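hiii so um. not sure if this is the right channel but i have a protein structure encoded as tokens and i wanna go backwards to a sequence. like what aa goes where. can anyone help
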């Protein structure tokens, strides 16, 4: 018999793969203070987001995380200028009026000389935190929160509901801000500056919070969080395994990080604690009473995306632990950092999801209230504006 060719339906990547990839990039960013490597990580995350994000409302939140990162850098530099940390230098840029402090506050100053080395160190630390925030924003923009909730293990299902409700706050806030700015422009009012921010900040926060609460109520009305009955002995064993596993994980992590612990104590405890925690979560999953409609597959694209994030994190971690030059740079003396080969190659591996993941599919219907936008910027909107229909339908 001749085989019948059945065309495969388009699908989106598993949200867990996006989060593993983003957490790998965030781990890599936390292991370096080299501004060139941090900018490279930001560029990798931004390119993948631009290539694989959809038209869903949560996909527009990445720019907000980038702006938040700029605010973090500015705050870090301003605090360094005003209060001055332990970083000193010889290149004095300017001098602020210094406030005299009592002797018991020795080591703390307000004002005084501001050096280029101190500002560079503050900018490096702020850029590192901004890169971590951008990686988390990339995961928030690429992963569907509804599908992420459906993929949560049964034991963590109630926690997943709370996390997804919290995750809807930022994308809805970004969408409300865009609509508020458009409305102010149509009314002939300024949509930028402090006056516009003061006029729209409170309504935006209130509207996003009301939507999140309405989503929580809709979830509760649809039976989210419903649990089944299990024997008392099973509950006791589950609690003992989970608590013992957490204690084992903490002890193993301490053994690996402590100077006198050694890997002979830390690694076995970490593995035993992880195994006990997984067994406890598997038993606790029996309490979750739910069904899955069209569960997301975990195939080769998911493995490649997750492996790329793990590879980036492994390259940066190994380079930082072995003392590869220019991974952790110092601002004193102030020199131009280099670009090490291994972390650079590892960061470029993070671009793999831009090609190995399925192309973005248009989100049409209640799950995307904005709908697909045409060339003129108009959107076709179907379904109700109820947040429960946007995320749960």
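sure thing!! here u go:
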């Amino acid at each position: 018999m001749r085989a019948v060719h059945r065309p495969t339906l388009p699908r989106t990547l598993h949200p867990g793969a996006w989060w593993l990839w983003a957490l790998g990039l965030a781990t890599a960013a936390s292991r370096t203070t080299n501004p060139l490597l941090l900018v490279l990580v930001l560029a990798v995350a931004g390119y993948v987001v631009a290539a694989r994000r959809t038209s869903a409302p949560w996909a527009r939140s990445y720019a907000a995380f980038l702006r938040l990162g700029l605010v973090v850098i500015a705050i870090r530099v301003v605090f360094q200028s005003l209060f001055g940390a332990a970083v000193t230098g010889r290149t004095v840029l300017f001098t602020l009026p210094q406030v005299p402090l009592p002797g018991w506050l020795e080591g703390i100053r307000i004002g005084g000389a501001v050096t280029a080395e101190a500002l560079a160190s503050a900018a490096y630390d702020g850029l590192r935190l901004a890169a971590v925030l951008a990686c988390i924003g990339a995961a928030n923009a690429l992963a569907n929160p509804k599908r992420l909730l459906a993929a949560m293990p049964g034991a963590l299902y109630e926690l997943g509901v709370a996390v997804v409700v919290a995750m809807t706050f930022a994308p809805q806030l970004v969408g409300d801000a865009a609509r508020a700015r458009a409305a102010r422009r149509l009314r002939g009012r300024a949509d930028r500056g402090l006056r516009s921010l003061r006029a729209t900040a409170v309504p935006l926060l209130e509207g996003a919070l009301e939507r999140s609460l309405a989503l929580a109520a809709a979830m509760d009305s649809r039976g989210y969080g419903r649990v089944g009955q299990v024997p008392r002995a099973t509950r006791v064993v589950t609690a003992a395994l989970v608590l013992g596993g957490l204690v084992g994980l903490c002890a193993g992590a301490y053994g690996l990080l402590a100077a006198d612990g050694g890997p002979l104590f830390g690694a076995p405890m970490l593995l035993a604690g992880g195994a006990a925690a997984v067994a406890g979560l598997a038993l606790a999953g029996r309490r979750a009473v739910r069904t899955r409609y069209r569960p997301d597959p975990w195939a080769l694209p998911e493995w490649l995306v997750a492996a790329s994030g793990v590879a980036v994190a492994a390259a940066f971690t190994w380079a930082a632990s072995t003392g590869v030059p220019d991974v952790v740079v110092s601002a004193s003396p102030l020199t131009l950092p280099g670009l090490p080969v291994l972390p650079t190659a590892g960061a470029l591996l993070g671009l793999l999801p831009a090609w190995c993941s399925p192309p973005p599919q248009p989100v049409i219907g209640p799950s995307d209230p904005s709908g697909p936008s045409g060339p003129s910027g108009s959107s076709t909107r179907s379904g109700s504006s109820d947040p429960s229909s946007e995320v749960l339908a």
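oh and Residues 194-221 form the longest helix (28 residues).
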